[in-house]
Amino acid sequence: MQTFNPAEHMVFCRKYQQNLPKLPKPPFPNAKGEEIQNTVSKKAWDEWIELQTMLINEKHLSMVDKDAKKFIAEQRELFLDNGDYERPAGFKPKD
C-alpha cells in the first residue's frame, strides 16, 4: 500500500518562488508540459489560463494561426517568469 507523501504534490514555483501545490498532470503531452508541471504551481498555471483566455479574446486570436500560438507561448513564459507580459485592458493581477 502506498502512503501519501505531501512533498510529491508540491513544486517550487518559478513565478511565486515558494513551494506550492503542483499541477496534477502536465498541461501539454510533451517535454514542455513536463517542465511546466515540475516548475510551475497550480495557482500560477490557473492564473495564466485566465490571462491567456483574456488575451485570446481581446486580441481576437485564432489558435490555429502559428503567429498567435507563438505570441501566446511568449506571453506564457514572460508571465511565469515575472517578465513584462502583455496585459489586457483593465487587467489587474491577483494579489
Overview of the structural elements:
Helix content is 43%, strand content 8%. It is mostly helical and 95 residues long. It starts with 9 loop residues before the first strand and ends in a 15-residue tail after the last helix. The relative contact order is 0.14. The mean pLDDT is 91. The chain has 3 helices and 2 strands, in the order ββααα.
Q: Write down the oligomeric state.
A: single chain
> Which spans have pLDDT < 50 for at least 5 consecutive residues?
none
H/I helix tally = 3
Category by helix and strand content: mainly alpha
Question: Which term fits the overall shape?
Answer: globular
Helix content range of the residues, please?
A: 40-55%
Proportion of residues in β-strands: 5-15%
Function: Could be a mediator in iron transactions between iron acquisition and iron-requiring processes, such as synthesis and/or repair of Fe-S clusters in biosynthetic enzymes.
Keywords: Iron
Pfam family, one: Iron_traffic
Protein name: Probable Fe(2+)-trafficking protein
